[in-house]
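Each letter names a residue; structure tokens follow underneath. Both lines appear below:
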Amino acid sequence: MEKLKVALVGTGNICHAHVGAYLRRDDVEIISCADINLDKAKAFAAKYNIPKVFNSVEELLAGSDPDFVDVCTWPAAHAVVSIAAANAGKHVLCEKPTCHNMEDALKLREAVKKNGVLFQLAVPLRYGNAAQHARKLVDDGVLGDVFYGKTAYVRQRGIPGGWFSCTKYAGGGPIIDIGVHRIDLAWFLMGCPKPISVSATASYRIGDYRDDELKEQLANGGATVSADNAWAGSFVPDYKFDVEDSACGFFRFENGASLFFETSWSFNGPESFATQIAGDKAGFTLEPFKLYTADGAELKEEEITGIEETGIFYNEIDHFINCIRTGTTPSSDIEQAVQMEAMLCGIYESAKLGKEIELKY
């Protein structure tokens, strides 16, 4: 079987997670990588024996010929890199969130469609084995008419370091960083109904709770990782902490269903990592994985066991590679990516305006 050639753009933490999925396969070859920090890209290439190193996506596309591009930059560059790759006729795997705004999301959709390439948004939680099993329950009609979802990713104290808490680069705070994972997962488990509106609030009351010494180090490039988050981003010279502490709200969907969410980096209450889906016949929680089935006036509770997780990044990338080889549409394709972008942007707009807003995409 001919090997698929992949190029990596952005060589930070998440790219290291993606590389492991490629190295375990004998039908994929990493041919190049790029980063605006060329020294960082060179070190990354040396670690993984990647033959070509570039300083930009433009140089990479001119100097190598991949079948697809894996976009692992900070969010502010997702659209620029993805559009360039699509316009070069390359398939695109792009880390969440898709873009910084709806204007860029629509430009990306246009580029993907015009050039006939595949696009997959990297939202790994939906590719977990338990999540796939749960979605099959929904698809098989076990839950009946799914009308309700609730999800949370709440940290008490969990601000990442580096660019993650700077809107210029990240686009937002916990909504963009961790909330999107749970929102997408719950939406996926509900069958991805068409979103029509959102009502949300966001809090900026706590701010940067970290001690003054660490703040000073962050401001001067002396620290890039907070004590409580190993996924922190790199230092940026114009760093400014200007993102939300937490957010909550609910989405309405065209089929009449609703999804409630909450997310936080800074919250004076219990941590929460949970997803619940309900239909008119049954419902389930994912953490722990339990099925609740109606039996007349009683509700039967059954724990779902025996599902072994084999690696969400492996599953996610295996899915995309299979789609490229077979020409099938990825699960989290460009249409779903644009809808998710509308949902995320809608949270901020609703919170700013203080009212429920219609989602347009």
Remarks:
- The chain has two domains: 4-117, 126-313+341-358.
- The longest strand covers residues 146-154.
- The CA atoms of residues 76 and 169 lie 5 Å apart.
- Residues 126-313+341-358 form a domain with the Dihydrodipicolinate Reductase; domain 2 fold (CATH 3.30.360.10).
